[in-house]
Amino acid sequence: MAIRDILLYPEHSDVLTTECDPVETVDDEVRQLVDDLAETMYDAPGIGLAAPQIGVTKRVTVIDVSDPEQPGGDLHVLINPEILETSGTITWEEGCLSFPGLYQEVERSENVTVRATDRDGERYELEAEGILAVAIQHEVDHLDGILFLERMSRLKRRLARKDYKKIRARMAEETNEDVEA
User: Quick check: is 107 catalytic?
Assistant: First the structure.
């Protein structure tokens, strides 16, 4: 396993907005990708990470919405996920590891049923609600080349981009201060 660099917006928007290719066969290379995604997500820390966020345009994502203080967690591996059904509506404050420090309210379906393949190549279906349903939708969007900002109104998206520029400027200042000290 390896901790990989997480691609940030806007520097890597070309990869982050690319629709990912399906995985043809779950082999050792794909299992290594799953392991790298999980290790990177836990290190970040985050509750989900999709392959394009580490520069791999394959339909692979990992999610764990369990308590980070609980060892082992509840890792969901979704290879070639397809959302089959949605219902209800929920507004959730979302963040994204490719937009560090930015949190915005996004409206999503409250319940989803997803079909995916696990790290052993077995197909399964999962019914999810609440934060797990939100995380699945967020990560599947990544695999479709859709950023969470695109799920907001034009005005909210514009304001979020302004906020993010300020966050990035502050991060750059902090980095320079650390280097100079």
Answer: no
| Residue 130 to residue 112: CA distance in whole angstroms | 9
Q: Annotated catalytic residue: which of 39, 94, 122, 139?
A: 139
Which domains does the chain possess? Answer: 13-152 (3.90.45.10)
Specify whether the CB–CB gap between 128 and 115 falls below 8 A: no
Query: In which element (H, E) is residue 107 found?
Result: strand 103-108
Closest by alpha carbon to 97, among 6, 174, 167? Answer: 6
Whether the model pTM is above 0.90: yes
Tens digit of each residue's pLDDT (9 = 90 or more) over 110-131? 999 999 999 999 999 999 999 9
User: In Å, what is the CA distance from 14 to each residue of 58, 76, 133?
Assistant: 15, 27, 26
